[in-house]
Write a structure and sequence with these properties.
The complex is a heterodimer of chains A (299) and B (281).
Chain A lengths: L1 H7 L3 H27 L2 E2 L9 E2 L3 H8 L1 H33 L5 H9 L6 H11 L7 H9 L16 H26 L3 H9 L4 H12 L1 H16 L3 H6 L11 H11 L3 H32 L1
Antiparallel strand pairs in A: 1-2
Helix pairs in contact in A: 2-14, 4-8, 4-11, 6-8, 11-14, 13-14
Chain B lengths: L8 H30 L2 H6 L15 H9 L2 H32 L5 H12 L4 H14 L6 H4 L6 H12 L3 H9 L4 H12 L1 H16 L3 H6 L8 H8 L7 H21 L1 H11 L4
Helix pairs in contact in B: 1-14, 3-14, 4-8, 4-11, 5-8, 8-11, 9-10, 11-15, 13-14
Classes of the chains: A mainly alpha (299), B mainly alpha (281).
Chain lengths: 299, 281
């Protein structure tokens, strides 16, 4: 009886949250749980054999694999370069755009424009820019800027330049997004702080150092977190332009994962990579948490 | 309020200098694509190294015509519009309802499931792409519309954005509606939805930007043209012989043009939407 009574009335809150929770459980939590389990098995998609328990072998093989180790290094290098460069650039643009001057909206629009470009299209446009001929846009621009010293380079097939080329296009596409977030953060800093500092005789640099940076602290941490995670998600550009080459110079964790599960049907290996990827993301997020908490304790 | 003293002249000149340099770097590739799409193919590469890269010599719309005869561009465009549109529309309903339930209503499991939402908040899609691909294979969903839509409707980040927005709304509005005898559903539709328009706009734009450019997932789950969206279509068009850079750039312009028009029209909303994504701290 009580069971019937209870099942007759489902509270509106449960009704409202139900579709979202089912979706999250079935399409996010379940596959993630599946990855945790399958990372301990060996199994091929479409194979008649049932999954075989192999313990940690998928993981030990992963870390013994040169391509995967290189992928981790590439992702880390990408993050170490792109995060500071892109954040600094975005911060500079945001602070410039925070001043009132004619054409402000125009510039903001312009800097944001690449954000609405799908990464696949960005990769293809930049492939043309990086074309290997001496008459390619990037090659002739560099040649002009260095007064002929620059030798025409096949950027995307040269192990030295392939990853930097991908970094450049990624910064181009992602910078506007960060700029908008930082601009909003800057506008959240009250004006009276700057007025007080000016009365005290602080110059612009001191204002930046002692008001703007601390005021943007949480926004900056957020932006750095998102960009770092983004660096580890790197895939589209690599798949379209270089297929991880030359000599694994541009391979990434996601590229290796897709190769494992999509090209070779190795479910166990792909799942193990998923778990590694997840652990990286969690550690980055925990670092952010730590810094945010310090901030809260201070205030 | 007293305005801050105006910056010195050298500072203004430096600022404008950086802005103009930035404008050239940010807009250059876009202009390059646009101009290349208007040129006959043999000029695209040969003129790329001079100022003529940004000058439409022998301009025509031939490349655009060529795209339509070589591939089913309209099909790809409609696929992208349908997939992204459905995710956005269904996502707004599903996630805002959940956000409201978490923010305002008492129900069993509320705290437990909120922890789930928080835990999934930082989980990027890439972390589940491989097992989800396997799961979809087992379910026989590959190469369809639903495989590109249904897994993405419920979204922890959207729920969280709605949740924080609803928390910030004054309770009086809802209380007076409840006094008039409205239940939670009617309160939601008649009071919450109209007042939360900015939150809906933000979530809609963020969801749209995320899924319109999605490449990894449709690459994994679609085969052939039928269900293929634009990003995968342009990547395969780019390798379709004969390689015609003019055609490829025309494809690119047509792919981004609809979004650009919407963006320029609703720019304020785009900017607010993106800014909202950083407000959670």
């Amino acid at each position: 009886m009580t069971y019937l009574q209870r099942s007759k009335f489902i509270s509106p809150g449960t009704q409202m949250a139900f579709p979202a929770i089912v979706g999250l459980l079935f399409f996010v939590a379940l596959p993630f749980g599946l990855a945790l389990i399958l990372s301990f098995y060996q199994y091929r998609i479409g194979s008649p054999q049932s999954p075989e328990w192999v313990g940690l072998r998928n993981f030990s093989r992963l870390f013994a694999d040169d391509a995967f180790r290189r992928a981790l290094v590439n992702n880390a290098v990408f993050a170490l370069v792109v995060v500071p460069v892109q954040t600094t650039l975005a911060l500079a643009l945001a602070l410039l755009l925070n001043q009132s001057f004619r054409g402000r909206t125009f510039f903001r629009t312009l800097f944001f424009l690449p954000v609405i470009f799908p990464m696949a299209l960005v990769a293809i446009v930049w492939q043309l820019i990086f074309s290997p001929e001496a008459t390619g846009l990037a090659n002739s621009l560099l040649s002009t800027l260095t007064m002929g010293w620059w030798e025409p380079t096949d950027f995307l097939r040269d192990p030295r330049f392939a990853l930097p080329a991908i970094m450049v296009m990624s910064i181009w596409q992602g910078c506007g997004f960060q700029m908008i977030i930082l601009l909003a953060g800057r506008q959240g800093i009250p004006d009276h702080l700057y007025e007080a500092a000016e009365i005290d005789g602080a110059n612009r640099w001191q204002c930046f150092l002692h008001i703007t940076l601390p005021g943007l602290r949480n926004t900056l941490i957020f932006v750095v977190l998102v960009t770092t995670i983004l660096a580890f998600r790197l895939f589209d550009q690599v798949y379209i332009l270089t297929q991880g080459g030359p000599q694994n110079a541009t391979t990434t964790v996601m590229f290796e994962t897709v190769r494992a599960i999509f090209d070779r049907g190795q479910v166990g290996r792909g799942s193990a990579m998923t778990v590694v990827f997840f652990l990286i993301v969690v550690s980055i997020a925990m670092l952010q948490r730590k810094y945010l908490r310090e901030e809260r304790e201070l205030s | 309020m007293k305005p801050l003293s105006s910056p010195p002249l050298w500072y203004r000149i430096l600022g404008y200098g950086i802005l103009f340099l930035g404008a050239v770097l940010f807009f250059g590739p876009i202009l390059f694509m646009l101009i290349a799409s208007l040129k006959p193919d043999h000029l695209v590469l040969s003129e790329a190294g001079s100022w003529r890269a940004f000058f439409p010599s022998e301009a025509s719309l031939d490349n655009y015509r060529s795209v339509f005869t070589r591939v089913s561009f309209v099909r790809f465009l409609l696929n992208s519009l349908f997939i992204t549109g459905t995710i956005v529309a269904a996502g707004l309903v599903v996630n805002s309802l959940a956000g409201y339930a978490f923010a305002r209503l008492p129900w069993k499991g509320r705290h437990l499931f909120f922890l789930l939402v928080l835990a999934l908040l930082i989980l990027p899609f890439e972390a589940i792409a491989a097992p989800l691909f396997y799961q979809m294979t087992e379910m026989g969903w590959r190469n369809s519309y639903q495989v590109q839509i249904i897994p993405f409707i419920a979204n922890a980040f959207s729920i969280y954005l709605f949740y924080t927005f609803f928390l910030g709304l004054p309770r009086e509005l809802e209380e007076s509606a409840m006094m008039d005898g409205a239940g939670p559903w009617r309160t939601y539709w008649q009071v919450i939805v109209p007042t939360a328009k900015p939150a809906f706009a933000s979530v809609a734009i963020l969801t749209f930007l995320l899924h319109w450019g999605n490449y990894l997932w449709p690459l994994m789950v679609t085969v052939g043209d039928t269900y293929r969206p634009l990003p995968v279509a342009i990547a395969s068009f780019q390798t379709l012989p004969p390689i015609q850079w003019g055609d490829i750039m025309a494809f690119g312009v047509m792919m981004v043009a609809p979004v650009m028009v919407v963006f320029l029209w609703f720019q304020r909303w785009f900017v607010q939407g993106v800014a909202a994504s950083g407000m959670k701290n």
